[in-house]
Write a structure and sequence with these properties.
heterodimer, A: mainly alpha, Rna Polymerase Sigma Factor, Chain: A, 2 domains, 9 helices, B: 247 residues, alpha+beta, four-stranded antiparallel β-sheet, two-stranded antiparallel sheet, 6 strands, 16% strand, elongated
Amino acid sequence: MNSSDAVREGLIPLLPRLRRLARALAGQVADADDLVQIVLERALARAAQWRPDAALDKWVFAIARNAWRDELRARGRAQHLFAPEEAGEMAADGTAQPAQRLELALALAALPPDHREVVALVLVEGMSYGEAAELLEVPVGTVTSRLARARASLQAQLGKDA
Amino acid sequence: MNPIDDDTLQAYVDGELDASEAARIDAALAHDDVLARRVQQARALRAQLRAAFDPVLDEPVPQRLSALLQAPAAPAAAPFVRPASGHGTVRRRAPRRWFVTGAALAASVALLAVTLWWWRPGGELVRTQGGQSFAAGALEHALDHALASEPDAKAPVAIGLSFRSNDGRLCRTFVLRRAPARAGLACHGDAGWELPVLGAAAPVAGGELRQAASALSPEVQAAVDARLRGSVFDARQERAARDAGWR
């Protein structure tokens, strides 16, 4: 099996998790799926760089994180944070209380990218600190401190009931 | 006792502490309400995030995304779907929609090619598709239906462990009882049971294979170890996974 077939077939079962990660990074449904599309195209184009002994999920999540950073740069800081009235889109599919979802969406959107990505990788995707550190190419201590600060901001934003 | 700082408490909530450290926090929580409240807040935040994003896992994947992962575009398909160039700005919300048609067309071409290109090493139990081995015939049937908790000594295939792989797929180990005895690992995807590992099984004295689970070759065992997330399925989980079609 050549590497592009292996990557293509291996990505199919990862699509739901990739969409979840993209949603946590990008926020809105449409932006997140645009991000997933970019990630899939990049992953297929770079399939030859994937080593079969490396976990495909980590590899493609790293592509997703880098693609998201690229998108942020391309769109500009001012634009990437969606307008507050748009945040409701994210709450559309929810199981939680709509008001609570909106609050969470706003709190996440307010995080700097460094913090948002550790929240997405560790708290949403469920990676260990070590795995997130490897993906982000930073020391574990950096992941820990970013996560602690992200948690503090989220809890402060979400306020009393969190 | 050392004081418990924020990073340690966070690591506790995220399951990053070793057993003895975690036990130290457990003990401290029992008589420290402030600490217990901080842990509860951190857990609640984590739960809130999961509740917000886990439903994405159950959403249907948009066709424009799954289409990208269908069989590779056959070169002949491209000219029919090339978009008009110099046609103004493509709206961001509909990026490369033409590609979906192209991929679907390419997929049917590739499917035809695959159908014409089947081969059967090992007596119809294995087929190849796109250069990868897949279970076929009695092996595919056993992987689809047989339960390790209800072994059938006369079946040609013995099922061993079932578990969820770290790529999200469900995988099962198996041993082919008839000669040449082979042990392997199968992981379920849209194209069927892919066989990332298929090798010789070691028969024990007397020529009989041991129990399927213990007859795993080192190669299969290593493949399982590399993929296993959590623990292997018990009888109830195995049955539930089968009834759910190994999704």
